[in-house]
Specification:
The chain is mainly beta. The protein folds into 2 domains: about 100 residues; about 150 residues, Porin, CATH 2.40.160. Helix content is about 10%, strand content about 45%. The longest helix is centred in the N-terminal third of the chain and has 14 residues. It starts with a helix and ends in a 5-residue tail after the last strand. The model has no long low-confidence stretch (mean pLDDT about 85).
Length: about 270
Amino acid sequence: MERIERLPNQVNGVVMLMTPDMQYTRREKDYATSIENVIFEYGYMAARLTRRRVAICLFNGVTLPSDFAGMLVIQAGDYKNGELLELLEETIKTLRRWLEDLPSLADEMPPVQRVHGYSGQWRVRNRFSYWQGSPIQETEKISFEGDMFLAISVDGKKGYGYQTGELFVYLDDYEAQWTIVNRISNAMVDGDGMLTLYPEVLARTRDDKQNAVLPKGRFRDSLIGSRQFKITLEIAPGEHKKLHGVHEYLFNSELYNKAWEVHEYRGFFDLT
C-alpha cells in the first residue's frame, strides 16, 4: 500500500492491464474479471492522477463493472495465462496517441495533490462585541466580511493561508470602512473537526466617511501589539459546510478585540 501511495508522485500516467483472472457464474452465465487489487488500484490512481492519465488495457473475456463506462479503455486482444503478453499493433498505436496527448508535468509534480478537506476557499463573516479595548454598545456595529483560502496537510497538523475583506464600523456619527489583509501563519484541525487559525494582520487601510471623527479616548487609530490573534472554530450543528467560533486579539494579556465568527466553505476553487 505504501508503494501505491508513492507512485502518483513518480509517474505522469498509468496503464492498467485487466486480464481474465477471476471466474464466476451469475444467472447461469460465466463471467471473468480482473483480480480485486487491480480494480482498487485503478480507482486510487484515477483519483490521484485524474482519469485522463489512467488507461485500461482490456483483454478479451474480461467483464468490466458498469461504473467503468466512459473510462479510457483500449482493447488488448487475447490473453493466455502463463504466456508472454503481446499487445496488438492497434493497441500500441492507441497507447502512443494517449501518451502524446497527456499534458506535460514537471518531474516529481503530480497532477493532483492530497490535502485536508478543510483546504480551499471560505466565506468569512463576523461581528465584534469588543473592539480596540472597548465593548461595543447595542446601537453600534462593527463587522467583517471577506474570504479566506487555506491549504492544510492531510493529517490536519499544519496549514497556512490568507484572509482578505472589509471591516465596517458604525459608531454613532462615525462611519468607516477598512480594507483588511491577514496572513494565516498556521491552521490546524483536530479529531473533533475543530479548526484553529493564527492570522497575522498584514495591512489595514481605512477609508473614512467625509467629516467623520473617531470618538476620542475610546478607540485608537492604529492597531497595537503583536498583530497576531487566534480564531477557534467548531462544527456548527445542523448547518452544512459551516464552522463558527470566537476570534480574540490580546494585548499585554488584556482583551483588545473579540468577535463571533461564521466560516462557510465554498469549495477548493469558488468560480461563481
